[in-house]
Predict the 3D structure of the following.
Amino acid sequence: MDEGRIHPSAVIHPDVRLASDVRVGAHAVIDGDVQLGEGCVVGPHVHLTGRTIIGSGNRFHAGCVIGDAPQDLKYQGQPTGLRIGDANTFREHVTIHRSNRMEEETVIGNGNYFMAGCHVGHNCQLGNQNMVAGGALLAGHVNLNHQAFISGNCLIHQFCRVGRLALMQGGSAISKDLPPFCVARGDNGISGLNTIGLRRAGISSADRLILRRCYHLLFRSGERLRVAAHQMLEQFPGHPLVVEWAEFALSTRRGLCSDRSRASLGNEAEA
């Protein structure tokens, strides 16, 4: 190994597969079933372990523990897996656990940003370009779609789903599914659309107005969930954002977080 890019105090198993330009900092530990792609940077005191496959351009800051065993009493020590895509950032002391069974991996997509001290549990499935802020905790089997923003100290119960471009306000907690495009507030509450996130994602004002109407149908019409979801599809046939939202609602097993403010749609007032 190149002493110029591998600190002499790092402990790297001879079976580890490193791309030629990977850099490893002081006192890092990388175990034998780990593979790192091009351009990865492993900071000091990082531990990479498990059957972990890591793509290119990922950066692991000091103290991260990536691929350790799941916190699951049913786990019996099998060589389970974690798969990480490209261009993710893991800030200080982030923990990501591998899966609890051989048939399924924990999966992290591309371009995600994990702030200091957050945790992603076993068997989670994360898409692309999500932001997980400091102290946020994702329990096992959570599904986080794309471009969601999980604020500081948020809690996501096991098996919950978070839709695309959803946002959780700081300190909020969910044990039900958070639909796409919505803002979570408090415990299992929703306080309107994530209008800022929609704008940043290039969603037009006309489409934001359609989503606002769908929000009223789904959460404020008084209709049952399945009826309201089908009404969305009937009113806006074939609209891709409406189809995405309706399919998410119709496929829920835990139920959806509910609207907590009939008086205002604070985050969508300028939709």
